[in-house]
Structures are given as C-alpha cells and as structure tokens.
Amino acid sequence: MVLPGMKATYTEDPNRPGEKRLPGFSWLPNRVRHLFVSMLVEFVGTALFLTFAFAATQVANTPPNDIVDSPASTSTLLYISLAFGFSLLVNVWIFFRISGGLFNPAVSVALALIGAIGWMKAFLLIVAQILGGIAAAAIVSGLLPGPLAVRTTLASNVSVTRGVFIEAICTAELIFAIFMLAAEKHRATFLAPIGIGLALFIAELAAVFFTGGSLNPARSLGPDVVLGKFDGYHWIYWIGPLLGAIIAVLFYRMIKALEYETANPGADSDGRDVVYEERYTEEETQGPSRGRHVTTDGANESDFLPPFHPINRRVSELHKSSLPRYDISGTTSADTGTILLSDLPNKPSAAFRHGGDGHNSAEHRTSSLSTHSRSRSYPESRYEEASEQSYRSGPSAESGGTEYSSRLSS
What we know:
This protein has about 400 residues and is mainly α.
C-alpha cells in the first residue's frame, strides 16, 4: 500500500532479471500469477457486467405503478437489451487487455476449443465467472428495493426445445463475433469490445422476450442461487449456450480450413498497406529471392523510382558487395568505393511523389508505362502486378475518362 508521500517499492527476482515483483512474491511462478490475475479480473469483470445489467433489468421490471407490464412492452425489452449490450461493451473494454474480458463460461469453453486459451485456464475462469454472477445478483438484491426480478424464464408459449435452440443460435452469434473481432487479430482488434457489445445487444433483442436472453450460464445461475429458486428447465441455460459455442467453433474452423482470408484479400486495408515487392539482382539470382516492404497509399510509388537507386534499398542492404559502400566518417576511399552518405539525395515522402493522392493522373500514366516496361527485366509478385494492372486500367480521377485504359487494352 502506497500512502501519500510514499514511493512504490518493488523487488527484482534474481531468477528473472528485469522483472519487477512486489515484496514477498518473488517465489510465485509466472504461470500461477498470470492465472490468478486472470481469475481475479474475470470475477470482478463478470460481477460488474452483470451488476449493471441486473440493476437495469430490475428497473425495467419494476415500473413506478408497481404493475409489471405483461407481456413486456418493446420499450422494456429495448431497455434490458441496451443494458446488457452496453454493460458488456464497457466492461470488456476495461478488462480486455488483462484477461480478454470473457465473462461467460460458454465463451471460455469456445476459446478453449479453438486453442486460444488452455483448458486449465478455461476451467479456472469459468469458476471465477460463476462466482462473479452470484456476487452480482447478491449485490443487486441487497442494494435495490423490492424482490429480485432478474431471473431468466421461458415465455408461456415457448417450449423447452425452442428455448434451447433460441439460446444456442443467439449465443453462436455472440461467440462468432468474439472469434472474428477479438481472437482474429487485425487492424480493428482494439475496437472489438464495441462489436461484441453490439452483438450481445442484437441477440438480446431477439431472445429476451422468449427465454430471458441468458446466453450465459453465469447470468442465469446467479439470480437462481441468490433466490434459491430453480425451474425444472434451468438446464437449458447451460446446454443452449454450450451448443451455441460448438456451432460457432465448427463454423469458425470450417472457414479457417477454407482459408477465408483469401476470399476477400485486402479487406483490412486502410490504403497504406505494406506491399511485398520482389527485386532481383545478378547476385541474388543464384539463391532464393529476396524482397523488401514498401508502404504505399494505394499507388505503389516505389515502382516509379529507378529500381537500383540507393534510396530504394533498406539501410541493411546498403553494404552489399553489389552496391557502393557508404561511409559516415566523412572520408571517401577509392579502394573500397565508399561514398559519403551526405552525398545521397534525400528521399521525398512517398505520399507526395507520383500521385500520392491516389489519383490516376497523367503523371501516373507516364510513370506507369515506364514501370511496365521495366517489369520485364525485374519480375514482380503476381499480386502486385495484378494490383498495378487494375490501377492503370481504371478511369482517370480528374477527367472521368477511360482513354488510357482503352489504350492499354488495345
């Protein structure tokens, strides 16, 4: 504990140099510490997520006139759905970088099935999530007046079989959103909590009227434990979400086996992708091809530069025997052929060379023709060549015409 005027004190484990530890905890293995932190965060996160969701549900189910609308009005259903969706969004975003913000035993099982987390960790997280659900129900029951009105029950006209599949389909939607937005890493992974929260929101809109919209065994178990009341069909709130997890896992595995990334390449592009460009020299033709990465804004400006100009090379490649050597000491040796780095021209920003605005202007077209002829001597990646062809054959952004594309096709 650090009081005002005190400085935090850490110790360093001699067996783990550079890794700071709290005093007295140097004996704790990293794996145990990681599991403990994950369990603690899942318990607190699940409790917070369900506490706010239960509190809003309590408000929705306790109108001022003490008469609960039956059947529930759309405004009541929307209020409950928003409460669960946005409570999940906020709390997942808070704890996303620590434990992943699962808060759901079905999600933990699904992530274990695809290998994102180990089964031991999944089991410990499930225990923490169940305890968090019970704690949330107890907090709402103790803080808010009136009987706890947040249990999940089937509507009078919904059969148990229908209830299972409603829970399964809605849970599959939620878990598949987690797979694609959080488990699959991409540029927008940091925004995954928004998509996950919205996925729960739309699932609640569809399910809350018929089954109570559990989608989470911990969500249904908590209130039942606090109230000491279990329906004979309580098991559907376990089987349904677990079945939904299996459905999501099977579909995810299928599209992964089919290499879904190749179906819509570049979908994650922001216009300044890293393009792999292959260049060959006489020295490299004897061995495996080597390439370099170039950042572009949609038009590959690097192709419009001379292929062997020094500024087209990475610094690590400037000392190859096939290139002049550059000396930073300020002296030039005739024997070694070194050249002063200060004599090299400065490379302008790629965004301001040859149509950095991404337009297919006249300057682009002139440079593209020279690049096309140069590509015969220096083969490029097929993907890049196809990209250039589609770029060159498009209409001019300035004129709106397709004169150049027709000339190329002829």
